[in-house]
Amino acid sequence: MSRRLARLAPRQGVWRGAFPFVMSLGIVALLLAGYWLKNSGPSVRRTEVVTVLSTEAGRRGRWQGNYVHRFIDRADMVKLLLARGADPNKRMVYRSPVDGRVEDGLVALMLARSAEVVAALVNAGADPNMSDADGRTPLMRVVLAATPEAVEQLLQAGADLAARSRAGLTAAAVVQDRLQWLHDSWSHLKQPQAQERKLKLERVLGMLEAAGAARQQSRPVDVLSARGRVAPDDWGATSESGE
Length: 243
Description:
This protein is mostly helical. Strands 1-2-3 form a 3-stranded antiparallel beta sheet, with no helix packed on it. The longest helix is centred in the first third of the chain and has 54 residues, at about 1-55. About 55% of the residues lie in helices and about 5% in strands.
């Protein structure tokens, strides 16, 4: 027994000396693998997404109904999916893993965060005035979560400023409510993030008000019937007063 231990002792010493070297090689291998995945990952994901999209396979989890949402922050991936036939108006269901709430009837445009993604979806036929199960339109969501440039892009696409959710709120009212919440909770919020959030919301609210005023001015001016003139639908007809 003692002879066997004597024979194994040198081998154990060799392994103990080689262990740090082996660990170093393992760490280097992991770093190289991470670098490779970072740089080659998008092409792999593109192949995977296109395959899933082509087979129309379902996906279990918090989201159900579409794959565009999985890459909603990646304009290149959104464009790829749309080019391969993804429906920009397909409905989705969201199940929150935090509080268990269920949001039904969502579309990709409601989740867009950048002007480039909004433009890609709109150009592919996304309806800027679709509403979810709670009556909220893409504009009502984008004003809180996306960039001001994305809001501007959605307004240019014809988003309805007067649309109301089931709670009776317009997009402007949604922003005003959030600004009021910021005001009431100001002392408990982290700075300067709260200040940046406030400035962004004030900018968005100004954009909504300016867009509403511009659309109001672009409408045909109604001529009061009390003065004997006709309504815009009756241009060319003879007025009652003969003017």
